[in-house]
Amino acid sequence: MISVPLDKKRHDRKRFDCAVPALKNYLQMMANQQSNKDNTRTFVLEDVKNPNFIIGYYTLTMSTLDLSSLPSALQKKHQNANSAGLIARLAVDKRYKKEGFGEWLLIDALKKLLNTSDSVAFPLIVVDAKDGASDFYKKFGFVAFFDEENKLFITVESVRKSFKVSSEHF
Ligand SMILES: CC(C)(COP(=O)(O)OP(=O)(O)OC[C@H]1O[C@@H](n2cnc3c(N)ncnc32)[C@H](O)[C@@H]1OP(=O)(O)O)[C@@H](O)C(=O)NCCC(=O)NCCS
């Protein structure tokens, strides 16, 4: 499996339905425009049998880091940092749910951000978990910010450790 940048000529965005209107609408109406403006990047996982069908997608960008919402040890360690990598959206089409694609997309997004952090350093990866998906992210080591149950983070250091190989190899 491989993720590819969203291509509006190739991918059938209208068919995509993850049952969360905000995430569906973003893919259909915003993702391509936002990428053209260099605001976000969206990657899709294609169905190998029908490559124009989108199994799932994620959108990456950067976010301002609010140190005050972090545990004190992390506040101290990262006091000079001001940015985090952001998984702004991640969704799987309802026809492909519970087959491991959400996990695959999350790992793929983390690999991309880890690779990026080798060139443009940032200490945390943040995710906006919509519609009760925070437990999905907690399964993979994300922790909620103090003040926002649906906004979670993981350190780049722990992502690097969990992949157990240098980010140079991705
Ligand atoms: C959340 C979502 C991405 C999961 O995708 P999926 O392909 O169904 O998930 P997977 O099959 O890869 O599941 C991987 C593991 O996470 C668990 N999981 C899946 N969704 C979960 C949820 N909402 N809460 C807790 N755990 C969840 C699965 O049970 C599985 O655990 P297991 O390995 O112990 O069996 C998908 O349900 C989705 O797109 N939801 C709507 C959009 C959304 O809420 N996106 C996230 C916020 S932006």
From TrEMBL:
Catalyzed reactions: glycyl-tRNA(Gly) + acetyl-CoA = N-acetylglycyl-tRNA(Gly) + CoA + H(+)
Domain N-acetyltransferase residue range list: 86-148
GO function terms (MF aspect): acyltransferase activity, transferring groups other than amino-acyl groups
Keywords for the protein's UniProt record, in alphabetical order: Acyltransferase, Repressor, Toxin-antitoxin system, Transferase
InterPro entries for this protein: Acyl_CoA_acyltransferase, GNAT_dom
UniProt xrefs under PANTHER family: ACETYLTRANSFERASE, ACETYLTRANSFERASE-RELATED
Name of protein: FIG001353: Acetyltransferase
Organism this protein belongs to: uncultured Sulfurovum sp
